[in-house]
Design a protein that fits this description.
The protein has helices at about 5-25, 175-185, 210-225, 250-255, 295-305, 335-345, 465-480; strands at about 30, 60-65, 75-80, 90-95, 100-105, 105-110, 110, 115, 120-125, 135-140, 145-150, 160-165, 190-195, 230, 270-275, 280, 315, 350-355, 360-365, 365, 380, 390, 415, 420-425, 430-440, 450-455. By secondary structure, the chain is of the alpha+beta class. The chain has an eight-stranded mixed beta sheet, with no helix packed on it. A hairpin with a 2-residue loop joins strand 15 (about 270-275) and strand 16. Helix 1 (about 5-25) runs antiparallel to helix 7. The protein is globular. About 45% of the residues are buried. The structure holds 2-acetamido-2-deoxy-beta-D-glucopyranose (NAG) (4 copies) and fe (ii) ion.
């Protein structure tokens, strides 16, 4: 590469600038010194209390709900009957109302190697009132079971709402502790944002799908009462040509339905919802992501569509992190980063939650989007338009913790700790949200890490350090484009 004198000068000035920036930016974050008192536990045995089949002939089991439309006025109720199909109808009524309504669903079954599923029912209830408690009953005609949920308030910029963050949960004793902590948390999560890897059935010989059923029964105690917003992880792929199983995501998509058509997606693996003041985009790290692919085309429209005046909080969920400093799965998110990081920055995504790495990590606001093959500008730098990346793959599955970390801790990593736990995102209003992380070895109310998030859309460039950082970024971009 031949540089002109002007080019060389600019290059030197920039290199100097980079050096100064580096010298001023903090010392590469915190690697927690917390010492765990044990390693990790195994899956709970099949006869555990949490896996118990509910009593009664053909009793509905594995009941779970998720959002059923784009706005939060719909709910998808799913459950399984084992003995015979029975009814796919849900009877529901608002609290303090005598009027019982009903919605009709359908059921599916599937085979996986030598496993045959029960009757998997899905029923979408639509046009509910916002901000209302509903009771619902499934198992009509045989053994019925009753549950309840509360719809979110209407979508709007200052609607407070609390999300739980759980990932890579699995079904060990640790998983049970994570779920218990989430249930008992004084922060009172109203909806779970689940970042993928559910049952880990595929860790068993023949992907023993019995472990999908146990997971469904285990999580019912939370998932029947509040929506879980599902993201597909690598353990949902269940691709096993050696078993004759060549259709990816077969058990997952049969069991966990999501309202993907409501956001004009053509696949349940990527979709979006609005809920209160949040716009949540779910991506699939294990589907085609390249230009012109269905996911790309959908995302291209989707990001442009978000109205931050209506839903200020733009949140992305995907399984594989793009900024993780653990050794496990290091740089696996790189293809997604190369394709989509520039949109995260352009559209000022507030936070990207991922799982996959079985540990906790929170990043600085950084980006690395100036590279264009010839300019050599592939440096991760502070960027106030970039999201914070949070890895929350610490639900407690059978594979154990990702304890090995890359050293030294990179500058983009603000806090990291290999312990099991869960997160809470507490949105206060259009400008402020509070994120906290609970580790299982503390009490349910203890926050081992926390941070105030200033909304990226409403954030004003007030602090000088950030401003100079922004100017620097502009300079790099100009250079990249020159
Ligand atoms: C964790 O497992 C390793 C290897 O089995 C063992 O050496 C170590 O003592 C264990 N640590 C704790 C805290 O139990
Ligand atoms: C499926 O096949 C495996 C291996 O042959 C066997 O251990 C298991 O019991 C079978 N399960 C069913 C439901 O037939
Ligand atoms: C799971 O946790 C629940 C709630 O804390 C408890 O009642 C149950 O006994 C636990 N089950 C197992 C197998 O640890
Ligand atoms: C938004 O919430 C934060 C944190 O609770 C608070 O300090 C701030 O005053 C609120 N802003 C408005 C406009 O209410
Ligand atoms: Fe994973």
């Amino acid at each position: 590469m031949e540089l002109t004198w002007k080019g060389k000068l600019e290059w030197l000035v920039m290199a100097g600038f980079l050096y100064i920036i580096n010298a001023h930016v903090s010392e590469g974050g915190i690697t927690s010194s917390f010492l765990r008192s044990y390693n990790y536990s195994l899956d709970m045995p099949l006869d555990s209390d949490v896996f118990r089949v509910p009593p009664g002939y053909n009793a509905p089991q594995q009941v779970h709900i998720t959002q059923g439309d784009h706005l939060g006025k719909g709910v998808i109720v799913s459950w399984i009957t084992q003995d015979e199909p029975g009814s796919s109808t849900v009877v529901y009524w608002a609290q303090d109302s005598q009027l019982k309504l009903q919605a009709d669903g359908f059921f599916v079954t599937y085979n996986y190697f030598n496993y045959t599923s029960g009757y998997i029912h899905h029923c979408t209830i639509e046009n509910l009132e916002f901000d209302t408690q509903y009771f619902y009953e499934v198992g009509i005609g045989f053994t019925t079971r009753e549950f309840w949920f509360k719809t979110p308030p209407p979508v709007g910029p200052d609607v407070p709402y609390t999300f739980g963050l759980i990932g890579d949960l699995g079904q060990t004793y640790d998983s049970n502790t994570t779920l218990t902590h989430y249930e008992k948390s004084p922060a009172k999560g109203e909806t779970v944002l689940y970042v993928g890897d559910l049952s880990y059935a595929d860790d068993y010989p023949f992907h023993d799908n019995i472990r999908w059923d146990t997971w469904g029964r285990f999580t019912e105690r939370v998932a029947a009462y509040q929506p879980w917003i599902w993201t597909a992880g690598n353990h949902e792929i269940d691709f096993a040509p050696e078993l004759g199983e060549t259709r990816p995501f077969k058990p997952y998509t049969a069991r966990y339905h999501v309202p993907f058509q409501a956001s004009h997606s053509t696949s349940p693996l990527w979709y979006s919802i609005k809920r209160a003041s949040a716009y949540i985009i779910v991506m699939s790290a294990y589907s085609a992501i390249g230009k012109y692919t269905p996911q790309y085309k959908w995302l291209e429209n989707e990001f442009a569509k978000v109205n931050r005046k209506e839903t200020p909080w733009l949140i992305v969920l995907m399984h594989s992190p793009i900024y993780s400093s653990y050794v496990a799965h290091y740089m696996e998110g790189e293809t997604v980063r190369v394709m989509y990081e520039r949109w995260f920055v352009k559209y000022k995504v507030d936070v990207v939650f991922a799982g996959h790495v079985h540990a906790y990590e929170r990043s600085e606001r950084v980006s690395n989007i100036a590279y264009n093959i010839v300019n050599g500008l592939c440096k991760t730098m502070n960027d106030q338009s970039a999201p914070i990346y949070i890895t929350i793959g610490d639900g407690g599955n059978i594979e154990g913790l990702a304890t090995a970390m890359t050293e030294p801790q990179p500058k983009y990593s603000a806090f990291r700790e290999a312990s099991f736990g869960h997160g809470i995102l507490d949105i206060k209003n259009r400008s402020h949200a509070y994120f906290s992380w609970n580790r299982n070895q503390d009490g349910c109310a203890v926050e081992a890490d926390s941070i105030w998030l200033n909304n990226r859309y409403y954030w004003t460039h007030s602090d000088e350090a950030s401003l100079s950082e922004l100017r620097h970024h502009e300079k790099v971009k100009q250079l990249a484009e020159a």
